[in-house]
Amino acid sequence: MKKIEAIIRPERLTETIKGLKSIGITGFTVSQVVGRGKQKDTKGVYRGKNYQVTLHPKVKLEIVLSDYLVESTIQTVVKAAQTGEEGDGKIYVYPILEAYNIRTGKFDDDIDDLVNREEGL
Amino acid sequence: MKKIEAIIRPERLTETIKGLKSIGITGFTVSQVVGRGKQKDTKGVYRGKNYQVTLHPKVKLEIVLSDYLVESTIQTVVKAAQTGEEGDGKIYVYPILEAYNIRTGKFDDDIDDLVNREEGL
Amino acid sequence: MKKIEAIIRPERLTETIKGLKSIGITGFTVSQVVGRGKQKDTKGVYRGKNYQVTLHPKVKLEIVLSDYLVESTIQTVVKAAQTGEEGDGKIYVYPILEAYNIRTGKFDDDIDDLVNREEGL
Ligand SMILES: Nc1ncnc2c1ncn2[C@@H]1O[C@H](COP(=O)(O)OP(=O)(O)OP(=O)(O)O)[C@@H](O)[C@H]1O
Ligand SMILES: Nc1ncnc2c1ncn2[C@@H]1O[C@H](COP(=O)(O)OP(=O)(O)OP(=O)(O)O)[C@@H](O)[C@H]1O
Ligand SMILES: Nc1ncnc2c1ncn2[C@@H]1O[C@H](COP(=O)(O)OP(=O)(O)OP(=O)(O)O)[C@@H](O)[C@H]1O
Ligand SMILES: [Mg+2]
Ligand SMILES: [Mg+2]
Ligand SMILES: [Mg+2]
């Protein structure tokens, strides 16, 4: 089990959620963040108290899923979130050790995912 | 050391914090998120521009703790956050490689937790 | 590749970003959180419905970087975010399995970091 964390442009969120749905991924968590990537401009140079850092609004999308879904999910997010301009964002993959569904109190594991898939989720 | 991340109903946060306190867990971080789980309804079908995805407000609770506390903490969160209705949320467990306390600049490790525990924290 | 997550005082964010920039780290994500650490006071005792937990506003700073940058980045964050008073916050280190740049659709790996570094990033 893995977590895919995608930091994307807010205006690409709806398209990205549609893309995920089209490959059967309907579970995810979204939060508002701000950030910066590599700075290639000459702005933002140190000027003591006057120094201001511009942070860009982004959306963080977190998707916990079975290992076999990681590759197709990354491709789907890249396709839906990409504009080709600087600032399109990042995708990070984390290991998940255990997952539980609070309603059932049971382990939410890979087998569970496979069963749902066979049922045509 | 592990991180337990619980995505719960906002209205169960106070009860969950009480539960954590009752087992000696007082350190945690909370953030506001929105999300979706499995979609079992027929709403939300694609309709081009009219398509709207409903995202439900949830609270993300993050608790970094020693390995020996993971199981009891999960049980406590499930008990406090569960309503039995769909949408109760998820618990995910992540590995943590290192932890530091910024005030002391020192490693915040398992042994530290054990020492605090013996002192009756 | 690792993620450093620092939970710091909001008023130390600008100083911390300056410190990161001074060691060549310009990519990061920031979010607003609230939290608690160890409770050493006698306030907050259970009083049924009247019980209220005070959550302190903090800022979560997330930095994904190559392994060789972890130690110096932690030292830099501690130096910039530390006041010496309780509540200065925590630093947690997580493993990252994969990283992608959405604009290029390519893997964002350690070698990439080294190349950028040689180019004087
Ligand atoms: N190293 C990093 N760690 C954590 N978050 C990052 C990092 N780099 C970028 N981000 C997040 O991703 C967002 C978008 O970054 P961005 O796409 O500009 O990265 P970049 O490396 O500069 O690539 P590009 O050249 O395509 O702009 C940032 O606003 C920030 O939230
Ligand atoms: N796969 C996932 N990845 C990340 N977050 C998720 C995932 N699934 C659910 N969540 C988060 O948990 C919240 C609650 O999900 P929910 O409890 O409805 O899950 P579910 O699998 O549909 O279970 P139930 O049948 O009990 O409703 C969502 O709003 C979302 O924030
Ligand atoms: N175990 C934890 N898990 C997750 N987040 C934590 C944990 N402990 C603290 N935090 C986060 O760090 C913030 C600051 O914690 P704080 O610095 O007060 O920790 P502390 O252990 O009480 O140290 P100090 O004695 O220096 O106050 C909290 O508000 C919370 O957001
Ligand atoms: Mg950029
Ligand atoms: Mg659900
Ligand atoms: Mg404290």
TrEMBL record, chains A, B, C:
Please cite one Gene Ontology biological process associated with this protein.
regulation of nitrogen utilization
UniProt xrefs under SMART domains: P-II
From which residue to which does the signal peptide run?
none
Q: What PROSITE patterns does the record tag this protein with?
A: PII_GLNB_DOM
Q: Which residues carry this modification: O-UMP-tyrosine?
A: 51
Q: Which GO terms describe its cellular component?
A: cytosol
Q: Name one GO molecular function term.
A: enzyme regulator activity
Keywords assigned: Phosphoprotein
- What InterPro entries does its record include? N-reg_PII (IPR002187), N-reg_PII-like_a/b (IPR011322), N-reg_PII/ATP_PRibTrfase_C (IPR015867)
Q: What is this protein called?
A: Nitrogen regulatory protein P-II family
Q: What is the native source organism of this protein? A: Neobacillus bataviensis
